[in-house]
Amino acid sequence: MKVSFSAYLKILPFLLTVITCHAQNQSFKWPEGARMAISLTFDDGRGSQPSKGAPLLDQYEVRGTFYVMPSAVNGQLEGWKKVVAKGHEIGNHSMNHSCSGNFVWSRKNALENYSIAQMRTELLEANKQIEALLGVKPESYAYPCGQTFVGRGKNTRSFVPVIAELFASGRGWLDEAPVDPAYCDMAQLTGVEMDGKDFEQILPIIEAAKTNGQWLVLAGHETDVSGAQTTRLTMLSKLCAYAKDPANGIWIAPVGEIAHYVKSERKRLGLTE
Question: Is the separation of the CB atoms in 252 and 40 below 8 Å?
Answer without folding.
Answer: yes
